[in-house]
Design brief:
Elements: H1 2-16, H2 31-34, E1 42-47, E2 52-53, E3 56-57, H3 58-64, E4 68-74, E5 92-93, E6 100-103, H4 113-116, E7 121-125, H5 136-150, E8 153-157, E9 168-171, E10 186-188, H6 193-202, E11 213-217, H7 241-250, E12 270-273, E13 280-282, E14 300-304, H8 311-317, H9 322-331, H10 340-346, H11 350-356, H12 361-379
Parallel strand pairs: 1-4, 1-7, 4-6, 7-8, 8-11
Antiparallel strand pairs: 2-3, 5-6, 9-10, 12-14, 13-14
Helix pairs in contact: 5-6
Signal peptide: 1-20
InterPro entries: NamZ (IPR008302), NamZ_C (IPR048503), NamZ_N (IPR048502)
Domain Peptidoglycan beta-N-acetylmuramidase NamZ C-terminal: 245-385
Length: 387
């Protein structure tokens, strides 16, 4: 126990000496609040490279405190965060820790009952970016279902949402439910994963009416007005805050023939196509974050968003369909411009249909405005932080 006290004291000193933003204390950093729930228990963790306590990974921190970690569940991009978007992640034994890493991104997305039954309590600690189609939310949903089905407690170690200061975008319709959108929420929901876990459970969104034994360790010093800058890139193709801020608007290009910069040094900070007009050009290549990017090795012309518009302008516009509409009109492909992924990302039929009918971005945004306001009211009981 003395060793634990010394380590906890060291963590406290580290947080007190951190820069101003880091005075926002994540759930993981508050080990004293959840360590008693883990002592003497067999623990499973769903996490990745973003699950850190200061500069130390949560798994290493907890092992040094004597926590019995039996398994790590790995989401999209893997435990170490190095796999491509959409790339199946294999299960393996982690060489650094000797702990079994079980993939929940691939053919199996819900932790197997056979493993869950050998555990006493589960932890979830992953940095999210606040988008409905960012799949860490879906992985948390399936972990909640597995915990509920097997009578296990889930502890969510909450982290700030870097896009948590606004709510915007179409609300998902049930017929478009998929792994890139499982819940009737807007594209930008403005909630942390801890708050969303409370909402998923409280609104009865788990299958068969299951309820999860849920504990959320909230952040300290965070509000929904905070401009939180991520200390670690959350996935290979969101390398900086500029990409995180543009992601809500540019990700729709995943459902079109247009490149959004995968296979370059600036993914989600530009877009282009061989047939587009524009002074800016780039060629997607195979790289560590995108082994086979769309339009690989083809010269694309388009728009560079690395410096303009300003971050403030991006926040003011929110979910901006103008980029997609501009490309749709230039390429003149009609319905062939859209793949089925586009409706899965928007969560609706009407966005695509309105674009085909010639509607502009502002008119489409007005269509979802009332749905967003209703969602804001529905979410209020589940919020943990001041708006």
């Amino acid at each position: 126990m003395n060793r634990k006290i010394i380590l906890l004291f060291g963590l406290l000193l580290a947080s007190l000496g951190a820069p101003a933003q880091d005075r926002i204390e994540t759930g993981a950093e508050q080990t004293g609040r959840y360590l008693p729930l883990l002592e003497g228990r067999r623990v499973g963790i769903m996490t990745n490279h973003t699950g850190t306590v200061g500069r130390t990974h949560l798994v290493d921190t907890l092992r040094s405190l004597g926590v019995d970690i039996r398994v790590v569940f790995a989401p999209e991009h893997g435990f170490r965060g190095q796999a491509d978007a959409g790339e199946s992640v294999a299960s393996y034994r982690d060489r650094k820790t000797g702990i079994d890493v079980v993939s929940v991104y691939g053919s199996t997305k819900r932790p197997p009952d056979s493993i869950m039954q050998r555990l006493d309590v589960l932890l979830f600690d992953i940095q999210d970016v606040g988008l409905r189609y960012y799949t860490y939310l879906s992985s948390m949903h399936y972990l909640m279902e597995a915990c509920a089905a097997n009578g296990k407690r889930l502890i969510v170690l909450d982290r700030p949402n870097p896009n948590g200061f606004y709510v915007d975008g179409p609300v998902l319709e049930a017929k478009h439910r998929s792994f890139v959108g499982m819940h009737p929420i807007p594209v930008v929901h403005g909630m942390t994963l801890g708050e969303l876990a409370r909402m998923i459970d409280g609104e009865g969104w788990l299958r068969d009416g299951l309820r999860c034994k849920l504990t959320v360790i909230p952040c300290r010093g965070y509000t929904h007005r905070s401009r939180y800058r991520l200390p670690t890139a959350p996935s290979p193709n969101l390398p900086n805050m500029r990409a995180v801020y543009l992601y809500p608007s540019l990700c729709f290009f995943e459902g079109t023939p247009v490149s959004l910069g995968r296979g370059t040094d600036f993914p989600f900070q530009a877009y282009g196509h061989p047939e587009l007009q524009g002074d800016f050009s780039f060629t997607p290549r195979s790289n560590a974050g995108a082994k086979n990017p769309p339009l690989k090795d083809k010269l694309c012309h388009g728009v560079d968003l690395r410096t303009a518009p300003s971050d403030e302008r991006i926040w003011e516009r929110g979910v901006d369909l103008g980029y997609v509409i501009d490309c749709y009109r230039q390429l003149n492909l009609g319905e062939k411009f859209f793949t089925p992924m586009f409706d899965r990302l928007t969560g609706t039929d009407y966005v695509r249909q309105m674009i085909l009918q010639g509607a502009g971005a502002d008119r489409i945004k007005a269509r979802w405005a009332d749905d967003v306001e209703r969602f804001k009211q529905t979410r209020k009981p589940y919020l943990l932080y001041e708006e």
